[in-house]
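hey so i finally got around to running the thing on that chain from the lab meeting. sorry it took forever, my laptop kept dying and i had to restart like 3 times. anyway pasting the input first so we r on the same page abt which one it is
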Amino acid sequence: MVVHMRHTSGHTRNRRSHHALKVARFETCKDCNAKHLMHRVCANCGKYRGRVVVDVLKKTVKAAKKEEGAKPEKKAVAKKAVKKVTKPTKEKKEKKETKEKKEKK
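ok and heres what got predicted. didnt touch it at all, straight out
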């Protein structure tokens, strides 16, 4: 295998200089004055470059219908507390026996 050459810290930093995050650029919609990302449809009115691209009213009606038609959540039914019967261990048996002996005395 070939031995890789080392990179100087300057070379590494030059490469990483392009890794910085860029600030999101917003513009205001000409119709409703809402802020939206550049080159994207306005989420408030559904227009892009003056044309209606997305029918926002239709989407809101569809979302409302979907919420109405959603299955109602099941109510939690109170279950009876069931006590688990466990086998007594040797230690418990011994404790029980010692208690019984003390009570007899």
